[in-house]
Amino acid sequence: MLAAAMVGMAAVGSPLLGQTINYTNETEIGVMWSEANFFSPVAATVQTFHGVQFGRVLSMGLTAGIDEYFGLHVVPIAVGSRAALPRKRVSPYLGVEVGYGFTWLEKKTSGEWYDGGTVFNPTIGLRWKVSDKDRYLINIGYKRQAVAKHTADTVWGPGSFQTAAYTLNRMTVRFGMIF
Amino acid sequence: MERKSDLRRLSNSWIGVLLAVAAVFASCNDQVEHTVTYKTQVPVYWEVNAFRSMDVGVKPPKGVTETGKIYVYDDYLFINEPQKGIHIVDNRNPSDPKNINFISVPGNVDMAVNSNILYADSYIDLLAFDISNIQDIKLVERVEDVFPNMFVNAERSKFMTYKDTVITTVTTEDGRGWGGPWFEFANGSGDFSAPNYGQGGSMARFTLMGGHLYAVDDHSLRLFDVHQADKPQFVKDIMLGWGIETIFPYKERLFIGSMTGMHIYDASTPSAPEPMAVYQHIMACDPVVVNDNYAFVTLRSGTMCRLGENALHVLDIKDLYHPKLLKSYPMENPHGLGIRGSNLYICEGDFGLKSFNVADVLRIGENLLEHHKDRSAIDVIPAPKSLIVTGPDGVCQYDYSNPAKLRLLSIIRTK
């Protein structure tokens, strides 16, 4: 809600506490890796962040994406924030997303279904300018996604019930653009 | 120039930071916590002396918490509360059944009534209660050690039963050596102990015929002479094989359902039933009912009978020595069944109750009269006044004077 309000405020470009606030966005694609894994060792991730930029340092907004774990699809929706150390061409920055990963894309049957779970994704990266318009970024981070698979009437007989509560701990590497 | 090299230095140092972070996160591990909940039976050991000192007898009426076998005698309905005892219900008006009292019988699963004497198993013993005055029921006889298959030692000082239990196990693992949890479960490996007690069920099944009480346990038929109703005498044991489940009497014949087939016994000499035939089928749970010419056998797959199919088999039994399979009809998950005239009622477990007209046994599939899906159904008795159906929700009674349209009269709900 707060982030949405900020986006709204940014749209009119109004000043806040003496700082200029503007709309900002990042769209990223990348891979996720886990040494000891369920589903697949390498997973794919895309996400887009939309928010407001407070001055040159801080931005806040909403992030939505799709994570393909090859065997499981998760739609993470999160509140995101970025804090940069502004330099002229290459700026280091820290980012974080905190939210919930939904399993809307998974088939649901009476015998098997998924529940989503919280997602936490801190990153550290670099942004750089190629020209006045083109800005790129690369980041490395850690993504913790909780998700649960439920199975009814398992091999343990009628009436049995099984839940596998996964915590997917992945290293993330993403490349992105700021439009 | 100087500014450019500053930038390069800066980016180089941050790339170093990124690589260091990557090195830390590269050893990330996925984790999973499995929680499995399932029903099984666990063994319970009893000292014979301790069990015989347990309280037996009439208690005030109480709510039904679980329904087991049911039995109809005169205007009374007997509902077994598995392992605990028997609820007695005044069923003069099936629309308004009244719970009269409860007989506490430890280890009870089955019952039968003969001339106002109620027979009930109590673990290893057979008890006889005089119910001629329903308000003043008395234990009149205890026949000891007649279900010896439960004993665990030669001195007969200890016996074992199984108790229904819900077990929850929790295990955690990470993705190392990952073969998939579902794969592991399917192979019964991992930290779970497989529910391997299921076949040890020791439920006796009772029926009365020709002055004798017949009780089947999982592998034998036990005979009691009950000509003197309040003094049941153990006569003998007839070995039947294994997986014996149900017994159905019909015109001096006993039809015994087992996991592998149906046994037919000639009981025209009640004290010495003689085998006539065995109809064998694939392994399945299978109650049986019969009329003059046909036997109706339901086969059910389930925890105890995993290989089974779900079907109704119709057998021609005009020649009792050579029963022949006439036709098989696919079913969903059939449990108990009952026949009255040309109408067959089949309890389909969670799939409800079905009624069929079976006048033409080769066209039963086309003659489904009704399918009541609103309640689970486990067993059925077509009683004189009502059709009595048990299930996990309780005991339902239907007016079945019009077989094509059952009318719900009452429900004794489980609490």
Would you mind describing this structure in some detail?
Chain A is 6% helix and 66% strand. Chain A has one helix at 2-11; strands at residues 15-16, 19-33, 42-54, 58-68, 73-84, 90-102, 112-115, 117-129, 135-152, 161-178. Chain A has an eight-stranded antiparallel barrel with strand order 2-3-4-5-6-8-9-10. Chain B has helices spanning 2-25, 48-52, 181-186, and strands spanning 31-47, 57-59, 70-73, 76-81, 85-90, 98-104, 111-114, 117-122, 125-130, 138-143, 158-174, 205-209, 212-216, 220-225, 233-239, 244-250, 253-258, 261-266, 274-280, 288-290, 294-299, 311-316, 324-330, 337-340, 343-347, 353-357, 368-372, 379-382, 387-391, 394-399, 407-413. Chain B is 8% helix and 47% strand. Chain B is mainly beta and 415 residues long. The chains are: A mainly beta (179), B mainly beta (415). At the A-B interface, strand 8, strand 9 and strand 10 of A face helix 1, strand 1 and helix 3 of B.
